[in-house]
Specification:
mainly alpha, 9 helices, 0% strand
Length: 206
């Protein structure tokens, strides 16, 4: 079962497995409908119908559709960090920081291409549609700093946190460009993004 978002993004945290499974169905339905009809046309009633649950079950967890989108974004972030952690374990301690950064970018691209609703919501910085809130990228950068600093045996000091924040902001902007140019992500832009990240981070990590 997919991870349940943190309780802070919910009206009520699920306690029993059945409740957690219902929440998962609601978020899955929300993600599918975001791809099909977009955020503006999304409604709590439509999500309830798609999930096969009473409308009251939706309101038990969420006050409105924005709260659902925020919870979906949190779930995306949890899945992303889990996938990155697994990739880092697979690369082993002997791998360098370049392989670790490649793993982060690869997992972000994989979710961009395959995760329902990710194009509109990703980690929470595009709702309302078209807005670019800095907070989610800051949260992503903080999480990646903690993950990668442990992997490369480097203290997560202020300089490293700043470097990863700049890298995350840069990668986010360029990946958005890649997917505007081509639905599956322009491979040349992605390759340039990878090289740019390596060149920039080498100043801090080599």
């Amino acid at each position: 079962m997919k991870p349940v978002p943190h309780a802070t993004s919910l009206r009520r945290a699920p306690v029993q497995r059945r409740s957690a499974e219902r929440l998962t169905r609601i978020l899955d339905a929300c993600a599918d409908l975001l791809d099909e009809i977009g955020y503006d046309a999304l409604s709590t009633r439509a999500v309830a119908q798609r999930a096969g649950v009473p409308i009251g079950s939706v309101y038990r967890f969420f006050g409105n559709k924005r709260a659902m989108a925020d919870a979906l974004a949190q779930r995306n972030f949890d899945i992303f960090t889990d996938r990155v952690s697994r990739r880092l374990r697979e690369t082993g301690e002997g791998a360098g920081w370049r392989e670790a950064v490649d793993a982060v970018l690869d997992e972000f691209l994989a979710m961009k291409r395959t995760a329902p609703g990710f194009t509109l919501v990703d980690f929470g910085n595009q709702i309302p549609v078209g807005t670019r809130d800095a907070e989610p990228n800051t949260r992503v950068a903080e999480g990646l700093t903690d993950l990668l600093s442990a992997h490369i045996d480097r203290a997560p000091d202020e300089d490293l946190r700043r470097a990863f924040l700049i890298a995350v902001e840069t990668a986010d902007t360029l990946v958005q460009l890649a997917f505007r140019l081509t639905p599956s992500g322009d491979e040349q832009v992605i390759a340039e993004t990878r090289e740019l990240l390596r060149a920039y981070l080498s100043r801090s990590l080599d």
